[in-house]
Amino acid sequence: MTKVDAGHTMILAMEKKLNVTNIRKAMESLGINQADLAKMMTVSRESVSNWLNQEKFPRASKLLIMSKILKLGFGELVIQEQAPAPIIAFRTNKKKRVSTEKELNANDTGHMLRMLLPYLDTTVFSAPFTKAPSLEYDYIQKVAKEVRRRVNLSSGVMEISHIMELYDEFHIVLIPVLWGEKGDNGLYIKLPEDEITFIYANLEKYIADFKFWMLHELAHAMTIELDGEDSELFADYLAAALLFPGTSAKEVYHDLEKIRIVGAKVNKIKEIAMDYMISPFTVLNEVNKYAKSVSLPTIVVAIGGAVTNFNKSVGLLSNHLFDGVSPSPEKYMEVCRKTFKSKFFVALARYLQETGADAGVVHRLMNIPIADAKGVHNILGNQNDFT
User: Fold this and answer.
1) What is the pLDDT averaged over residues 177-194?
2) CATH number of the domain at 2-82, out of 3.30.230.10, 3.30.1490.20, 3.40.50.2000, 1.10.260.40?
């Protein structure tokens, strides 16, 4: 363990693998085979086979039983290698500069998240349509159409429930947090060797911004071939197209062209934004992208004030979720379970109940005050609802 500062310790996570050579020698010494070991451990023969073929790693409780049966210490049973560094991207409020301390803390969190992997129910995903991704309008629309089809949407509104379905399909684990209206929008942590992405999403943000950012992160998870500015542009373009597809943009463009009064055009854009629960900026931007794609003149209106008024009228997502009051841990967990159905809490509950870890783990994994962490820990550690 490496000391970073007086209030924080950085964990150098270790990638664990069973020492199959030692295990087989111990089994031979005891005169048992895989079927015998499975019976003694009260697990399936398939589980033992997966462990010895390095396809899966046993949970802590099973590892302890195996250790006792084979009379092997942890160091003899497990080979540890330092895990690759997690890929981290900050979504700061107003693009504030990220401090070195915050980078170290996020790296630490990424390593800590690895301990939840054995408790996550995930499957490997495949997204063939993101091969050779392009920033071209037609390509973006094609991908958006396919992604929307996966949640049975054609021109309908992309709801948070649809986004959660997509997160599940594309191997993204959501961690809903309350970091304050002026706090960071969120944090992206990808464990490259496991192809799992964790998204910390701040619920205390405007609804339209929250939806856009969530889909922006989905786009990143779908396009591992891109990096740098192209990656950010693709994520922005696809997020907007998912929220307001080209077919809708085409229809609205021709409606706006018929309106001659600028104020009436702005009101129409605000009306559409409210219908789709997206920013007026997204509506206008997608309308003009459509226009450019077919060589039509763009719609020129100033909507800065409309965006501000829209956000104020719609409000923060947290206000809608928690009726405008600071939630208790119980209310927070209830909403997270019903609205987001995140696998994070299921995995964390399993981990806490199996290992007996204290609230400090919750505090560090979620970056929330220790008092709140104790409340969440009490719920996850003692109830079976999440497991």
Assistant:
1) 88
2) 1.10.260.40
